[in-house]
Amino acid sequence: MCVRKLSYLLFFLFFLTMITGQENRYPIKCSNSGNEPQISYPFRVKDRRGEGGYPGFDLTCNTLGETVLRLPQSGEFLVRNIDYVNKEIRLYDQDGCLARRFQQQNLNINLSPFEGFGFRTFNFANCPPSATSHPPDELAGMFLDVRCFNEDTKTIVFPVSPTSTSDSKISQVLTRLGCVIKAPITIPVPLDAVTDVYKYGFDDLYLTWVDPKKPPDSDRKGLIMLIIAVITVIIALIGFYIKMGKRCETHQF
């Protein structure tokens, strides 16, 4: 009977040691279902114990198991993918209309550790459906039709180039067609859209980062905590083993 109890105790303490060793380990995911990205250095899950990340690269997991990044002054975005090789994080709007969010809110990434691969300026224009269903030849291929606004008018986007002479002409044609042109907005674009802006479809927000250097004592701190935890478990194991052994000897006599 005593041998069985000691075996149970040994198994429990071994299991506790394994949990302690796993506590500080990354990478992790917010959910194993779906396509949630892997969270690894420099990212970390906010308010979760253990090493593995760097200040400013805090992610959270919402109640649906989705990965969330909050940009200062710009709110929360869902994370579609994190490419650790190319240092690219792709964010999307939870309501499925990133273009509307760009129009309604001034995106600011200056207070975050992220930056854009490049930046382009766009004009948003609210147009009657007839203006975009059969556009004149001078507008062919010159604008992007954004379909997620759910308004009576159609919202289109066209790039603004400081070296182009066609921008004012596009604005004149759109105004003649009954479009209302909004103020220009400068936003970060993916790498391939830096040279060809029409490759960007306003589906995701593409940002990049530079890996920060790990604090010199971060790995050592995690190792020391693990060693202390293991030693504590071993001492507890020895104490319980001795105590149970004495009880067994007493019962034998």
TrEMBL record:
Origin superkingdom: Eukaryota
PANTHER family the record matches: RING-H2 FINGER PROTEIN ATL21A-RELATED, RING/U-BOX SUPERFAMILY PROTEIN
Source organism of the structure: Papaver atlanticum
Protein's recorded name: RING-type E3 ubiquitin transferase
Catalytic activity: S-ubiquitinyl-[E2 ubiquitin-conjugating enzyme]-L-cysteine + [acceptor protein]-L-lysine = [E2 ubiquitin-conjugating enzyme]-L-cysteine + N(6)-ubiquitinyl-[acceptor protein]-L-lysine
Topology in the lipid bilayer: Single-pass membrane protein
Keyword Zinc-finger found: yes
Any GO CC annotation of this UniProt entry: membrane
Molecular function (Gene Ontology), one example: zinc ion binding
Residue stretches making up the Wall-associated receptor kinase galacturonan-binding domain: 30-93
